[in-house]
Amino acid sequence: MTEDIHGLHSRGRVIEDMFFFKQNSILIEKKQQLQKLERDLNTIAGISGITDETVLRKLVELNIQVEVLATLLVIPLIEVAWADGKIKKKGHREAILSAAEATGIHGGPHHSGLFEHWLEAGPPKGFLESWIFYMQGLCRLLSDSERQSLETHILERARLVAEAGSSEGKPKRSRKKEDVLLQLKTAFNP
Questions:
Q1: Which tens digits make up the pLDDT trace of 128-186?
Q2: 8-12: Cβ within 8 A, 24+ apart
Q3: For the chain, which residues make up each domain, given as ranges?
Q4: Which of 55, 70, 164, 177 could make an SS bond with 99 (beta carbons 3.0 to 4.6 A apart)?
Q5: How far apart are CA 72 and CA 134, in angstroms?
Q6: Which distant-in-sequence residues (6+ apart) come within 8 Å of 118 by Cβ?
Q7: CA torsion angle 23 25 30 34 (round to 10)
Q8: Cα(129)–Cα(46) distance, rounded to whole angstroms?
Q9: Alpha helices in 49-81 (DSSP H)
C-alpha cells in the first residue's frame, strides 16, 4: 500500500511537472512573440517615422516587408519632386534632400541611396499609378482611423518636399506639384 501511494505521488509530480513545463513553454513563447512584435514595431517606426502605434501594429500584422514600406514612403516624395518634369536649380536638389532628411526618409539603413537614386533618375512611367493601386489595396485593410493616420503622415512628408526650394515671392508649390499631391490623396480613398 505504501508503495502504491508513493508511486501515485511520483506520478502526480510527473504530471504536475509536465503541466507546468507546458504552461512555461506557452508563456515563454508568448513572451518571445511579444518581444518580436516590439522589435518589429520599433523597426517599422524607425524606417517610416510613423508614430501611431495602431498603424504600426496593423503594418506588422499585415506583414508589410521593411523594403516595401521604405519604397511606399519614398515614391510620393520622388513623384512630387519630379512633378515639374525635372529638378531645376542646383539648390533645389539640396533643398529636396534636406526636406527628405527632415521627414526621416533620407539616410538610414533602409533608405540608403534609395531616395537619392530615384531623385537623380526620376520616376519611371507608371510609378505613381502602381503606388496608388497598392495603397488603395492596403487602405481597404485598414480601419478609417488607421487610414487617416497613414494618409496624414505620407501627405505631410510629400508637402514638405513639394515646398522645398521654392523662391521668395513665388507660390510654395507649383500647379503640377499640387496635381501630384491631389493624385496621392486619391490613394487613401479606396
A1: 999 999 999 999 999 999 999 999 999 998 998 888 866 555 667 889 999 999 999 99
A2: none
A3: 1-190
A4: 164
A5: 9
A6: 74, 75, 78
A7: 140
A8: 27
A9: 53-61, 66-81
**Residue 93 CB burial class (10 angstroms; 0-12, 13-18, ≥19):** middle
Nine cell digits for residue 79: 513623384
Give CA separation, 128 vs 30, 77, 145, 174, 186, in Å: 40, 10, 24, 18, 11
**Which tens digits make up the pLDDT trace of 78-109?**
899 899 888 866 667 777 777 677 666 655 55
Residue with cell 481597404: 140
CA–CA distances in Å: residue 174 to residues 112, 132, 155, 162, 179: 28, 21, 16, 8, 9
C-alpha cell at 70: 521604405
Q: Which residues contact 89 (CB under 8 A, 6 or more apart)?
A: 165
Measured in whole angstroms, how far is the alpha carbon of residue 163 from the centre of its chain?
Answer: 23
